[in-house]
UniProtKB/TrEMBL annotation:
Keywords, comma-separated and alphabetical: Cell membrane, Disulfide bond, G-protein coupled receptor, Glycoprotein, Lipoprotein, Membrane, Palmitate, Receptor, Transducer, Transmembrane, Transmembrane helix
Protein localization: Cell membrane
Superkingdom assignment: Eukaryota
Function comment: Receptor for adenosine. The activity of this receptor is mediated by G proteins which inhibit adenylyl cyclase.
GO cellular component, one term: plasma membrane
UniProt cross-references to Gene3D superfamilies, sorted A to Z: Rhodopsin 7-helix transmembrane proteins
Upper lineage: Eukaryota, Metazoa, Chordata, Craniata, Vertebrata
Pfam families listed in its UniProt record: 7tm_1 (PF00001)
Keyword Disulfide bond appears in the UniProt entry: yes
Any GO MF annotation of the entry: G protein-coupled adenosine receptor activity
Protein name: Adenosine receptor A1
Amino acid sequence: MLGWNNLREVERAWAANGSVGEPVIKCEFEKVISMEYMVYFNFFVWVLPPLLLMVLIYLEVFYLIRRQLNKKVSASSGDPHKYYGKELKIAKSLALILFLFALSWLPLHILNCITLFCPSCRKPSILIYIAIFLTHGNSAMNPIVYAFRIQKFRVTFLKIWNDHFRCRRAPPVHEDRQEERPSD
């Protein structure tokens, strides 16, 4: 990772203890990866700015949709309330995904900031484990949110669930019902 690791510190500590040979590294995340990398490069460059940008974009999207929904409808135009209502529902679903992303990832990044900026601060191990669990759980949340918020995703999700996890194949749905009629 472009030199963002703690190998030098591990080697110095190994030599300071009078040990010979290759250092034995205890496989803990904070022992092998640099918190400078995790905070400055990962969080401050690749997580926080895009997250803030997405929040601003969603605020603008919601503002524009609300403004369109509050406009008077002219007789010649179709039904903008129906169109923008659908757009609002989709935007809410995507905003929920963004919120869940932030809720899942910010605790770990905040703990990383505490580790870097306050090395003497004690962090309960359970908080670290919960934060890591949340980051892993975020990957499982998106399909579930899509499945419950968007009907096409819900139908597909339930079909996959029934086919592969419950071992129950659903009968095929035909677009053209004429195929089911007996021939003359």
